[in-house]
Amino acid sequence: MLSALSFRRRFSDLTEQEVLALAIASEEDDARIYRSFAERLRSDFPASAAVFDGMAVEEDGHRQRLIDLHRSRFGEVIPLIRREHVAGFYARRPVWLAQNLTLDAMRGEAAAMEKTAHDFYLRAASRTQDAATRKLLGDLAAAEAGHERHAQGLEQKHLSDEARGEEGQTAKRQFILTWVQPGLAGLMDGSVSTLAPIFATAFATQDTWTTFLVGSAASVGAGISMGFTEAAHDDGVLSGRGSPIKRGLASGIMTTIGGLGHALPYLIPDFWTATTIAIIVVFIELWAIAWIQNRFMETPFFRAAFQVVLGGALVFAAGVLIGGG
Fold first, then answer.
1. Residue 202, Cβ neighbours under 10 Å: how many?
2. Which of these, 26, 14, 11, 13, lies nearest to 88 by C-alpha position?
3. How is the chain split into domains, by residue range?
4. Cβ burial 75-99 (10 Å sphere, 16+ → b, else e)
5. CATH numeric code, 2-159
6. Which of 74, 177, 188, 275 has its CA 20 to 30 A from that of 109?
């Protein structure tokens, strides 16, 4: 690591030709990033993809003007120098991370890219005493500021209110399919399926520590099982449900949380205090499930509450009867 850093040059040591070459390479990289964003969004968010396509074209135009300037001042051979060769130069996120960014994150990343480049050129210009270099850096800063204004113009052109609404609905649908549905299924499974073993153990032994161990084991085991099942049964390509890893995490974590919610009270030594708190937690969990169904799945609240509470009550009663017998 230290040897690699020792070969990086300071920005203040670069010649004007090298600064121009660095700007050309940076414009090329930014155009590639915008095109990767556009390609990632094209199927689900065509209007936003058009914005990033336009931004990439704008970067190409700036790059071409910089190349023309280099040709007129320094000739045809452009020095090979990139961001990673210069100490303290602003960095860009790897393009492959576009696969993991949301639409809003991509928009924020683009805005940050332009602002970071603009600010860097301004700071660099303020530190140089050479008039020609100062002018060059100022021109680059002005070009980056122009990128930001151009991006705003592209959004106004391509992202009408209707397009924004459609993309908003698409993003909401993707969020529900990737996170809410698997998470809700996990919370329901963890909250309901663990009721019987936890309360059966509680009433059979009236030992809070044993009940806690059984409840924890049931919750963690169910979480692992639900997580792997969700991730393995659908890769999301044909169904459009998104990353299987994200869905598996949502399902597995919420399943575990659902079970641990009414297992944790049994850390309290007094049996009836722990049981009373556990029962209260169960009803909170069941009402939370009903609220999520109503909020995201558009299920009428009272119908969702009736279904969830009735199912939970039956499983709870089964656990109490088995344990009490």
1. 28
2. 11
3. 2-159, 166-324
4. eeebbebeeebbeebeebeeeeebe
5. 1.20.1260.10
6. 177
